[in-house]
Design goal:
By secondary structure, the protein is an alpha+beta fold. Helix content is 34%, strand content 19%. It is built from 5 helices and 3 strands, in the order H-E-H-H-H-H-E-E. The chain has a 3-stranded antiparallel beta sheet with strand order 1-2-3, with no helix packed on it. A hairpin with a 5-residue loop joins strand 2 and strand 3. Helix 2 crosses helix 5 and helix 3 crosses helix 5. The two termini are 40 Å apart.
């Protein structure tokens, strides 16, 4: 079937029959819980769970991040205020949007707040490259959680085929305003 379809296209003419654009947004993720930190460190940095927890433990013991074993996505008022101050001074007012994330599971242990840096303005968390990569991931995710959504323009182009009722569709999106993607994209 596929071969026959491809052969039918050899003499076809293709025309753009429709172009539609629509606005869209992309919102930042919540600050890290223990499990989301492990997942993201694995996918973005290639760190295993044990390595992630060992590195996070060192950062915690050095006072660079909050307690690492938590199910909470909540940030303290003080942490939010520090993030907002940093975002406004570094990127501008339009990049700031205060959010308080709620932890969904009723069984969640919320004695501690989400994983976050103790000092939002400190870019350096460790002299060890491995630990610094994890610190940077935690810091950028925390800052992004308090930033404006990214504004997108989504485009769908429909391409008609002269020899068929079928059509091709091409989809794409362009970032109009980067928002939180400026720090966590």
């Amino acid at each position: 079937e596929a071969q026959a379809f491809l052969e039918s296209l050899s003499s076809a003419n293709f025309t753009v029959s429709d172009v539609t654009t629509s606005p869209g947004t992309r919102n930042p993720g919540a600050p890290f819980t223990t499990s989301t930190l492990q997942q993201e460190a694995n996918s973005k940095l290639g760190f295993g769970s044990r390595a992630t927890m060992s590195s996070a433990q060192k950062l915690y013991q050095e006072g660079k991040i909050t307690y690492i074993r938590t199910d909470s996505t909540t940030l303290s008022g003080q942490a939010i205020a520090a993030a907002v101050d940093y975002i406004k001074s570094r990127y501008g007012e339009e990049y700031s949007q205060v959010r308080q994330f709620k932890t969904k599971p009723s069984s969640a242990q919320e004695a501690h707040e989400a994983n976050r840096p103790t000092d939002m303005s400190a870019e350096k968390g460790s002299s060890n490259d491995y630990d610094q990569k994890l610190y940077d991931l935690i810091r950028r995710r925390t800052l992004a959680s308090q930033m404006a959504p990214a504004k997108l323009e989504k485009t769908v182009v429909t391409i008609s085929i002269s020899t068929s009722q079928l059509s091709f569709e091409a989809k794409g999106e362009v970032i109009i305003f980067d928002g939180f993607l400026k720090v966590y994209g």
